[in-house]
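FIELD: query
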Amino acid sequence: QVQLVESGGGLVQAGGSLRLSCAASGRTFSNYAIGWFRQAPGKEREFVAAVPRRGIRTYYADSVKGRFTISRDNAKSTVYQQMNSLKPEDTAVYYCAAQLTSFSETYSTKHSEYDYWGQGTQVTVSS
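FIELD: result
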């Protein structure tokens, strides 16, 4: 089992930046692809970004491409998400999730395909 703990959320003005962290413990971190998802009130959970096991390639939702950057440090069992040029529509609870995979470049945009989830961290962007 993998335990995930997100941190770094908060209140920021539009145009500002935040850096989220997702710290993992338990099983071998490098065996998991990691995704960030978010859920706003009254909306479904949506894919934000993902990084496969090796961390060489990254993938983003169109809504955050060019503004968010996901990265991972397998030695520290941590994934980061740098969020710049934040918009009010980025307001949501952000979750990191881990997907066990045998393939180094596998990732998924579907929340149902992830095995473990953190508790979430609130990001609020004021206009």
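FIELD: remark
The chain is about 0% helix and 50% strand.
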